[in-house]
Amino acid sequence: TQPRQPDTQRHPQTPRGFPLRRDTGYLARSAPLRHLRRTVLLGSASALLGALVGCALPARPGNAEAPFWSGRIALQVEGDAPQSFAALFELEGEESQGQLTLFSPLGTTLGQLRWEAGSATLQTGQQLQRSDSLDTLMLQLTGAALPVKAIFHWLKGTQAEAAGWISDLSAIDQGRITAQRVLPEPKAMLRISLSH
């Protein structure tokens, strides 16, 4: 007696030779499994990237009760020799006494500016500079004498006048601040994006 051959019309063959059922067959199972495998791999990659980004900035030092902001700052200065500057930042304190630290995207400290009444210091690498002018050291750190007092008000969502600067707080609820310096020349554009 010849062995019975499977009916290929009624039971199409899978790559392994097993009959294919429409509800639980080989093809019906393999596509969801492939999708699940891709989902797991993509989820793992996203989690790893999030962990790396979260580790970019060092742990916050200083007084945990002092006002504190962090995010990204970008500055563009026009003129005969245009300048462009961008960094991650941490800002702590008030306009009368505070600390501004700038970081590279990888978390390396680019510079730390500290100030109090009548004095300021700028630490860049192993070099420490002292001055009685905060604007002078801010110019060295960022390329422009930023209006520190007004910036603290802007970060709190309140308008404040700064000579030569025009601020835009329309996106403060989304953590974004824009300010333009029109005087003195050269013109400059400041953009702040908050993460904290």
Question: Which features characterize this protein?
Answer:
single chain, 196 residues, alpha+beta, nine-stranded antiparallel β-sheet
List the helices and strands and how they pair.
Blueprint: H1 26-54, E1 68-77, E2 83-93, E3 98-103, E4 109-116, E5 119-124, E6 127-131, H2 134-142, H3 148-155, E7 165-168, E8 176-181, E9 188-194
Antiparallel strand pairs: 1-2, 1-9, 2-3, 3-4, 4-5, 5-6, 7-8, 8-9
Report the total helices: 3
- Summarize the biggest pleated sheet: 9 strands, antiparallel
Shape: globular
**Beginning-to-end CA distance, first to last residue:** 81 Å
The arrangement of helices and strands along the chain is HEEEEEEHHEEE
The Cα radius of gyration reads 29 Å
Provide mean pLDDT, rounded: 79
Q: What percentage of residues falls in helices of 4 or more residues?
A: 10-25%
**Structural class, from helix and strand content?**
alpha+beta
- The residue ranges in which pLDDT falls below 50 over 5 or more consecutive positions are 8-55
| Spatial order of strands in the largest sheet | 6-5-4-3-2-1-9-8-7
Count of individual beta strands? 9
Which percent band covers the strand fraction?
25-35%
What does this structure look like?
The chain has 196 residues and is of the alpha+beta class. The protein has three helices and nine strands. Strands 6-5-4-3-2-1-9-8-7 form a nine-stranded antiparallel sheet, covered by helices on one side. Strand 7 and strand 8 form a beta hairpin. The chain is globular, with a radius of gyration of 29 Å.
